[in-house]
Design a protein that fits this description.
Strand content of chain B: 25-35%
Structural class of chain B: alpha/beta
Strand content of chain A: 5-15%
Largest sheet of chain B: 6 strands, mixed
Helix content of chain B: 25-40%
Order of helices and strands of chain A: HHEHHHEHHEEHHEEHHHHHHHHHHH
Distance between the termini of chain B: 31 Å
CATH topology of the largest domain in chain B: Rossmann fold
Order of helices and strands of chain B: EEEEEHEEHHHEHEHEEHEHEEHEHH
CATH class of the largest domain in chain B: Alpha Beta
Oligomer: heterodimer
Number of helices of chain A: 20
Chain lengths: ~450, ~350
């Protein structure tokens, strides 16, 4: 046992003390942190203030006056803040985080004016002004400076947009915009015109605008999740993302370390160190030590990333969305998942001469293992579907599926958790037995790489 | 010379360090070792010789329990298999390498710990050994920074650092330059003097002649010869006198007149006189000396290569293997003389 320990220690240190590992494990969180700081700054700097006027030919005479108030700077800013708040609410982002995000944003509101053109103005002439101003802006230089109030959009409201002819439906309206008009501004102008036309129609029908708006406003749902510490505002996105993050964490740590195990086994074989080692330890001891060492690497990764995730949730006041018992399950399923994948990697690594040969053997295995990633959403939406329940007992995908299911929104039958753990550990035993057989034969085999059928034959050999 | 019985792992005396009984090993349809039985006496320095593909490495790997025989039994240092006595065995395989990125001292300490030595002793022994072979200044270098000769010294240290009772060396001289061959011979001899049983395989038979006190010949998985070098010289005495005259050769017929000479033939720069049955070498040599001036006159020693061919027959494949071995030997000898 002490020899297994020595091998595990070497394997662990040989992996974690490399520049590649340190870079690989630290780079993603650092990159995310840098991006989260830099992106708002970059985004703010990147968006220049939109300035210009919107022209309107209003045949009804009812729409333009309603739009005058809609395009003041304050009105536009208020609408934008309301829209962003609604989006963050939908995503389940708590108010303190929203405030923090808001304070970092200093994007100026567009400065728009409304220019009412006389009824009967030639639309083509009015459109030409947009084209000319856009061309002058694009050319830059002195010409661009001269266009201090470019025409950004032209609205053409026909008479029957508010008062249709007898027996006909309400007409729409035409909107012509500058080619590079900011998409948010365009959407806002469009929405305001739409609202102004509807208001004009209500007035034309002798009804009270405020009353009709109040009657037809969409009722907002106030969803709250009942947690152990009380009621919290519910978030469907958070409920989907957190179990997904659990599985992703498991997947990344298992496969990163599995890959390390594969490459270190191939290295020992190609460097011809293998036989030197086998003179001191048995193949089983060697394989067990390597798996144990890489498992410790995986635990380090899991702990680092998991801790970072928990800190993030604490900072965002979203820790209540995580049931802490799920962390224990994550640890148990990590051991099962890693052991299963490590057996496959050790067996393949021992059988091949270089990483290229390994890829061809790993291809079919990877296709099976990608299933939980592909079916993440359906499993999460319906954790008790027949597929999800069956997959919970099929190694090597069972730990990934179970992590999704136990962290998911719907409660799964309690007996399935211990049952899947027992099945998982039995599978680990079988995988270890088979991998040890392949490892024992494979480590001393050089030359033509084996195919899957050969590996199965090795397993069946005494 | 064989040494007295050796202590095994638990202090019991064993007469034979290795006992192989009726071992057979096949790889697919290829029969690598066929019903092989042999004993390696404790304290001996035994050379396993045979051409490439004879089954030497397979036999050694079975002794080391790296692969297992299809049938038969192998006992090592009094145990049922090498698995139970791995810490008393040093092994330098034919396919040997090092962790390229690992530092020399750390690597040797690691391998020593795998052989059951505690960390403190492992570090101390590593420093001692590196100093002894002149590698003290590379202890903190990565293995990939070492020359091939240095790497081979490190590999040898890894095999002996735990002071094994049995040392198995597979093709230990292959790839070594003449200087390192000599060093390796000295290191092996030192281990032998310490009382270690040594089994080493080589396809270069002249090396076995130089180093071993016991010879084991394997050909196509069979044992062709198993005896001490003294017994080999005695049993395979070619009964010939070789002489190198100074100046022109005399006619062969002049030597045929010497009593006890059956035939005469030219041999390289000299002549070879075959003795008749019952004739002694000394009177023939004395009679030869009075026929002229000679640079050297000696009793011809049997050559392991000749013995091997006599024993197994000279098929084309074997001769080809031996030819390449001979070329290797000549190259090594010439290099060593420089």
């Amino acid at each position: 046992m002490i020899k297994v320990f020595h091998i595990a220690v070497r394997e662990f240190l040989a992996t974690v003390l490399t520049k590649g590992f340190l870079f690989g494990i630290l780079f993603p969180p650092i990159l995310i942190a840098i991006m989260s700081i830099l992106m708002p700054l970059l985004m703010n700097k990147a968006a220049p203030k939109v300035k210009g006027h919107v022209a309107i030919i209003d045949a009804t005479g009812e729409v333009a006056p309603r739009l005058e108030r809609a395009f003041t700077e304050d009105a536009i800013r208020q609408r934008r803040d309301k829209r962003q708040g609604a989006m963050l609410d939908e995503a389940g982002v708590p108010k303190p985080v929203q405030q923090a995000a808001k304070s970092g944003q200093g994007e100026p509101a567009p400065s728009l004016t409304l220019k009412v053109l006389p009824i009967g103005t030639d639309v083509e002439v009015a459109k030409a002004a947009i084209r000319q101003d856009a061309a002058a802006g694009a050319s830059g230089g002195k010409e661009a400076d001269e266009v201090s109030d470019p025409r950004l959009a032209l609205l053409v409201i026909p008479l029957d947009a508010v008062a249709p002819q007898e027996g006909k439906r309400y007409a729409g309206f035409d909107m012509f915009v500058a080619p590079k008009l900011d998409i948010e501004v365009r959407g806002d102008v469009e929405a305001q015109v739409r609202e102004a036309i509807v208001d004009a129609r209500i007035t034309a029908a002798n009804m009270n605008v405020e009353s009709v708006r109040a009657i037809t406003s969409r009722p907002e749902a106030s969803t709250k999740a009942i947690t152990s510490t009380g009621e919290k505002k519910g978030s469907e996105i958070a409920q989907l993302l957190i179990p997904g993050a659990f599985m992703l964490l498991l997947w990344i740590s298992v496969f990163t370390c599995g890959q390390y195990l594969l490459s270190s086994t191939i290295e020992e074989k190609s460097n011809r160190v293998m036989e030197v080692l086998l003179s001191a330890v048995s193949p089983i001891q060697l394989m067990a030590g390597k798996i144990l060492g890489q498992m410790c690497v995986g635990i380090v990764m899991l702990t680092l990333y998991g801790s970072a995730g928990i800190f993030g949730l604490v900072a965002a006041a979203m820790l209540d969305f995580v049931d802490l018992s799920n962390l224990a399950y994550l640890a148990i399923y990590f051991v099962i998942a890693f052991s299963l994948i490590a057996c496959l990697m050790a067996a393949v690594g021992s059988a091949v001469n270089d990483i290229r040969e390994a890829q061809s053997l790993l291809g079919p295995i990877m296709i099976v293992l990608i299933i939980p990633m592909m079916l993440w959403m359906p499993i999460l939406r319906n954790p008790n579907s027949t597929f999800a329940q069956v997959a919970s007992f099929v190694p090597p995908i069972s730990p990934f599926v179970m992590v999704l299911r136990v962290a998911g929104s719907e409660k799964i039958p309690t007996w399935q958790i211990p049952a899947s753990i027992v099945v998982g550990f039995i599978s680990v035993g079988v995988f270890l037995w088979a991998a040890a057989k392949v490892f024992r034969i494979g480590v001393l085999m050089y030359g033509k790489p084996p195919n899957i059928a050969t590996l199965i034959r090795w397993v069946r050999m005494a | 010379m064989p040494r007295p019985p050796q202590e095994c792992a638990k202090g019991h005396l064993v007469a034979d360090a290795i006992v192989i009984e009726g071992v057979t090993k096949t790889f697919g349809s290829k029969l690598a070792v066929d019903n092989l039985s042999l004993r390696v006496p404790a304290g001996s320095l035994t050379g396993v010789i045979g051409p490439n593909g004879a089954g030497k490495t397979t036999t050694i790997r079975m002794i080391m329990s790296i692969i297992f025989p299809d049938s038969g039994t192998i006992s090592v240092l009094g145990k049922a298999s090498a698995v139970e006595s791995k810490d008393q065995i040093g092994y330098l395989p034919e396919e040997r390498g090092l962790y390229r990125k690992m530092k020399v001292q750390a690597l040797l300490a690691y391998l020593a710990r795998l052989k059951g030595i505690d960390s403190g002793a492992a570090a101390r022994k590593t420093s001692d050994w590196l100093g002894r072979v002149g590698l003290g200044d590379v202890a903190r270098k990565r293995c990939e920074e070492l020359s091939k000769g240095m790497q081979q010294k490190v590999q040898f240290i890894a095999a002996v650092i735990h002071e094994p009772q049995l040392l198995i060396l597979d093709e230990v001289f292959s790839g070594l330059d003449p200087v390192n061959r000599r060093l390796m011979r000295e290191l092996i001899d030192e281990q032998h003097r310490r009382g270690c049983t040594i089994l080493f395989s080589t396809h270069a038979m002249y090396e076995a002649e130089q180093l071993c006190d016991r010879i084991l010949m394997i050909h196509r998985g069979h044992k062709a010869l198993d005896m001490t070098l003294q017994e080999v010289w005695r049993n395979f005495d070619p009964r010939s006198i070789v002489a190198e005259p100074i100046g022109e050769h005399a006619n062969a017929s002049d030597y045929l007149g010497i009593q006890g000479v059956a035939s005469v033939r030219s041999s390289g720069r000299g002549i070879e006189l075959a003795l008749t049955d019952g004739a002694e070498g000394a009177p023939v040599m004395a009679a030869l000396a009075v026929t002229g001036l000679f640079r050297s006159v000696s009793v011809k020693r049997p050559n392991l290569e000749d013995i091997f061919i006599n024993l197994v027959g000279a098929d084309a494949e074997t001769l080809e293997g031996l030819k390449s071995d001979r070329e290797l030997a000549v190259a090594a000898t010439n290099g060593g003389a420089k």
